[in-house]
Amino acid sequence: MIMYREEINLRENQDEMDRARLKIFRQGLELDLLKSRMAEIKQASLEPSNPIQCLAQLLMSKEMSDITIVIPGHDENFKVHRLILSMWSVVFQAMLFGPMAEGDTITLSEDPPEAFSWLLAYMYTGETELPSVELALQVYLLANKYLLAHLKTVCSK
Questions:
Q1: Do the strands 105-107 and 78-80 form a parallel or antiparallel pair, or are they unpaired?
Q2: Strands 105-107 and 67-70
């Protein structure tokens, strides 16, 4: 009889342990599901939701860039896309696709880095908020150089 009670207690303990394991397993599955859902939400928030965001992401990530623009004295090179620059500027179109195409790297010795960076932001995103008059003047000169009439108008306002 004592043996029987011990066996019952052992089985009850085993059943309790099995229930606890099952509960932990279910919680683990729920946690995995929650982690998976959070990853999906995070990914969705990173995915651009319109063409402008797609282009901005291309500029920032440098993904699929096919040309490097070097400005001497500037720490970072600009990794950009021939197609984007050529869509905006016939000057870039000639530089990048014409008979005088210069290869995979272009050096722009005379362009101020901050103004050129802003020019790229304009080309990729349509950004027109210039933070200072000095920068507006520099960007205006670049817009004139690269024949960007709309940008010249923006800078002159």
A1: unpaired
A2: parallel
**How far, in Å, CA of 100 to CA of 149, rounded?**
24
3-state secondary structure string across the chain: CHHHHHHHHHHHHHHHHHHHHHHHHHHHHHHHHHHHHHHHHHHHHHCCCCHHHHHHHHHHHCCCCCEEEECCCCCCCEEECHHHHHHHCHHHHHHHHCCCCCCCEEECCCCCHHHHHHHHHHHHHCCCCCCCHHHHHHHHHHHHHCCCHHHHHHHHC
In the beta sheet, which residues pair with residue 78? 69
In this structure, what token pair is assigned to residue 132?
Answer: 């200072």
Q: What is the pLDDT of residues 81-126, one digit of tens each?
A: 998 999 999 999 998 888 877 788 999 999 999 999 999 999 988 8
